[in-house]
Amino acid sequence: MSRFRYLAPALTGTLVFAGNIFAQEEAAKDDGASFIDAIQNAGVIGYLIILMSVVAMALIIEHFMTLKREKLAPPEVIDEIEELFQDGNYQEALAACEANPCFFSNVTAAGIRKLGHPFGTIEKSIEEMEDEEAVKLQQKIGWLSLIAGIGPMMGLFGTVTGMVGAFSTIGSSGAGGVNPADFAADISLALMTTVLGLTVAIPTTAFYAYFRNKVSLVTMEISAVVEDMFERFRAAE
Q: Per-residue confidence at 65, pLDDT binned at 50, 70, 90?
């Protein structure tokens, strides 16, 4: 059931994206042109935005596969470290952490390395490593935020470029007037790049917010597990 819960946002975003594309294609057909033709009219900027959407989708799929508690804190690793702690085999526990690098094991290893020091020193080392690992995860999902921010800017750049081209065509038409067909390609560039930019930015922003909240929740859960595991050393003082 949890897998379906994680996949729900991805499916929703995909359906929204597909719905937008379908609606745009139907509108383009009504005007006698296909959606592919409209994308081609968007030029290099349009293709760059589409490339960004592919990168964003790849990142989203990767995040769904890796940003979950089972990957950041494998249950079998937690059980193994807990058993070694109960037996007092701290060096073996450190070796097990180093052999299974992940959020949980990296934080736990930082605490083990400070055993023998006052508990405040151990606790500080754990907190510093938790902050470091959390920053790494935030940086990892930060690429989605970057794409979500660049998408509309690329669309705006295409819009301005298209409008400049259109007004340039109008300005150079002379006294004989201008045929709307002469600057239709520039207007198409202006509008299509805006559509593409927003189509990429909206779902990407939603996924970024989802993963940001998920990272915060998972890191809090793992931190609680580590804190509970080291609580015995507080009582030993």
A: very high
Write the DSSP assignment of the chain as a string of letters. -HHHHHHHHHHHHHHHHHHHHHHHHHHHHHTT--HHHHHHHTHHHHHHHHHHHHHHHHHHHHHHHHSSHHHHS-HHHHHHHHHHHHHT-HHHHHHHHHHS-SHHHHHHHHHHTTBTB-HHHHHHHHHHHHHHHHHHHHHHHHHHHHHHHHHHHHHHHHHHHHHHHHHHHHHTSGGG---GGGSHHHHHHHHHHHHHHHHHHHHHHHHHHHHHHHHHHHHHHHHHHHHHHHHHHHHH-
More confident residue, 27 or 232: 232
pLDDT at 159: 81
